[in-house]
Amino acid sequence: MQKKKKLIALLVLAGLASGMAIGEPRRPPPLPEEEIKVERLAPADGNRLYVVDPAFGHMVDGRTHVLDGKSGRFLGMIGTGFGSLMLPSKDGRSLYQVTTYYPRLSRGQRTDVVEIHDTQTLVLKGEIDIPPRRAQSISYRGMLATSADGRFLYIQNATPATSVGIVDLVAGKFVAEVQTPGCWSIQAWQQGYRFSAICGDGTLLTVTLDEAGQAKSRERSAPFFDPDKDPIFIHPEIVGDERYFVSYNGNVYKVGLAGETPHFEAPWSLLDQADRKRNWRPGGLQISALHRASGTFFVNMHDKGAEGTHKNPSKEIWAVDLQSRKRLARIASNQSISVAVSQGAEPLLYGLSHDGKVQVRRVAPGYPVLRDIAGIGETPMFMEVN
Predict the structure, then answer these.
(1) Is beta strand 327-332 parallel, antiparallel or unpaired with respect to 316-321?
(2) Given this model, what pLDDT does residue 6 score?
(3) Which whole-number Å values give the CA distances from 114 to 94, 127, 129, 205, in the listed order?
(4) What pTM was computed for the model?
(5) How far, in whole angstroms, is CA 324 from its chain's centroid?
(6) pLDDT band per the 50, 70, 90 thresholds, residue 34
(7) Secretion signal: which residues (predicted)?
């Protein structure tokens, strides 16, 4: 009897075990191992936006945000260290960041570098050490420029003495420092190895380099503006050899950088009599943009202007025809501090406000708003379209 009970118990246990095995869910096969890779962006179509954010609350951790301006998509971000200067290469394949790092974030031995990023992957593809003299400035146009053939990178220095650092991008090394006392910003000529700088007395200093990047000549022009009565913004709009500078009082100065020496035209005003009565003036950081094919000049403008309002955000963006010098439109602004425009057949106008919002408008009658791209960084300030 005892044996019979043991046998029954064994059969029951076997049945339970069998039932458990039958009822147990089947485990799926293991997943394949993930392959870590870097996604490639679609080639830039002329509406890719690079937005510089120095992250004022923690400036050792600046960023450049990469956006598709046409669709409003956020494409990526590049960490840029302390107070980076940014410039897309002439062929659009590289993004130059000139920046500073400290081993203890905000202290320690300073290291300055040129970082070269691939614009399709945003991956760092090269780095060049430079002397710790570059201007730790926000990224105004004119702080960084390339030579006509893209070989040399010109970097604005400030120690606070002013000079220009010359980097040979082909050889991958720093090659020279050119002293530019009393002069600021870099206006690269479209021929040879030559650049000009705006001087505090209203003149233009022009430096010519040899094939090794060393200064071989320098010339100073006569004054072309009065820095006491009508100072100019160092942000130029460029058409070939021509530069258009806007003054604090709303005058436009055309400078030609070709031939043996620079040439200058008499300034003309963006304002009419009614505008002057309301004290309309240019303002912001990246104050203007130019659609080159149509010759349409866009300028950030605010009313009730006075001494010291030259960085005020805009109330309107004025569209002006460069050839006729007539205003084409007054566009209500999103209080933009910086403006940019793309150069394609269907150009878009971008206005960047202090709160990290880019308003996108079509360059067409009425300048209709297509979208607002919000939440871009913390303290975004400058844009380049590529």
Answers:
(1) antiparallel
(2) 54
(3) 12, 6, 6, 25
(4) 0.89
(5) 30
(6) confident
(7) 1-23
